[in-house]
Structure formats: C-alpha cells, structure tokens
Design brief:
9 helices; 8 strands; TIM Barrel; 16% strand; 8-stranded parallel β-sheet; single chain; alpha/beta
Length: 225
C-alpha cells in the first residue's frame, strides 16, 4: 500500500474517532512524522495533500525542508523532538511549532531568538507524564510553576502541552493527566497520540496526533558492518 493510501486510511480513522468521541469534524490535526525519511518519500505525502509534518532533529530538517517548501505551498512544520539551546536559532527560523519546550533555559533562548528574528513560533510544553528519568519533559508536579514562568516572566504564549507516555504503560492515564494540567492552566491544545494509540488520544481530547509509521512505514535500522 502506498503512502497516499495509508494517509487516506489514517485520515478516515481520525474522522471515525472524532465521531465516536462526539467531537467536531476536523477538530484533530494530523502531524505526519517524517523523521529519518528523505525528501523523495515525503514528497509523496505532499502530493497526496498532507501539509502538516513533524521532525525530531533540527539539522535533519534543515537538509530537506527548505527545498520541499519551495515546491509545495502551505507547509506547517512541527519540531517534536528535544531541542538543544545551540539549535534554537535554526529551529525558530525553520519550524512553525515547537512541541518540546521543557526547561527554563530553552524557553529563554527561544524567546530571545523570536525577538531577534521577528518571528513568532507556536510553543508547546512537553510534560514527562511518566516521570521517566531518561525522557525529556517537565515533571507533572512542576508543570504549573513552569507554565507560570513562561507566561509571566518571559511573556510567552503557550499554545499547548505535549506528552509521550511510557512505552509499556496504558496511555489513557497519561492522556488524562495531560488534559487535566492543560485545563487548570487554560491551555487549549494537546499534542498526544502516535501511530499505536492516537485513537485513545482523540477520545481524551487530543488536538494534534503525531503519526509516522502508519503513514510512511517502519524506519529502517542501520545495518551493522
């Protein structure tokens, strides 16, 4: 099955989930996660009408998206992976939305870069809902204070929250926790749900789902020599 057909299947499934959850049609935005795939593969999704994409690494995105954006109008590019301070300048220049604001230093750096470049980027704060030490994100118990810091001290508008539940956990509890944090902080958008669990995420109020393998297939692992 080609990328166009896979995209159509995912879109249909999202629409069905919206209906089941009694949500408005098109209330969920599909982010096609194109990390590790080259421009020729991504171009097939663009030709099928997809315009919202997610990348994990700034450097990788710089290598393929400027040219693709010259070919296709209306692209919206989301950074969904961790952001290092030394990549903030390029991230602000290239991406329309950053999902991984997760510490005071990067929040300050992003604000400074937006001022320098006179460019506004939509921001999501990543919450480490499973409190996993190896994973990026603000701990749930620190989320309110961090969001207050971003809004009050830095004057940033935080559009949404993002989470990546632990791989072995039922994601439902994590989605509910993210929604609860968002509600009490008057935040509208939720970036949660991937290829395996976006149906549940939509039921729990997700407005952005990040789907990669269901569209592009599984990424190839490097071959050992």
């Amino acid at each position: 099955m080609g990328i166009s057909s896979k995209l159509a299947e995912v879109r249909k499934a999202i629409a069905e989930c919206e209906k089941e959850a009694e949500r408005a049609q098109d209330s969920v935005t599909l982010i096609a996660v194109s990390k590790t795939f080259d421009a020729d593969v991504i171009r097939k999704a663009l030709e099928a009408g997809q315009r919202v994409f997610g990348e994990n690494k700034v450097q990788e995105a710089k290598g393929k998206w400027p040219e693709l954006r010259d070919e296709f109008e209306g692209v919206e590019l989301h950074l969904i992976g961790p952001l290092q301070s030394n990549k903030a300048k390029d991230a602000v220049a290239l991406f329309d939305v950053i999902h991984s604001v997760d510490r005071k230093k990067i929040a300050r750096t992003i604000r400074l870069e937006m001022e320098k470049q006179s460019r506004q980027v939509d921001l999501f704060v990543q919450i480490n809902t499973g409190s996993e030490p190896q994973k990026a994100g603000i701990l749930p118990e620190e989320a309110d204070d961090f969001l207050g810091f971003c809004k009050v001290e830095l004057g940033l508008t935080i559009r949404g929250l993002m989470c990546i539940p632990p791989a072995d956990d039922n994601p439902k509890a994590h989605f509910k926790l993210l929604r609860k944090i968002a509600k009490r902080n008057d935040i509208k958008d939720l970036s949660m749900g991937m290829s395996a669990d976006y149906g549940e995420a939509i039921k729990q109020g997700s407005t952005f789902v990040r789907v990669g393998s269901a569209i592009f297939g599984h990424r190839k692992k490097p071959v050992s020599i």
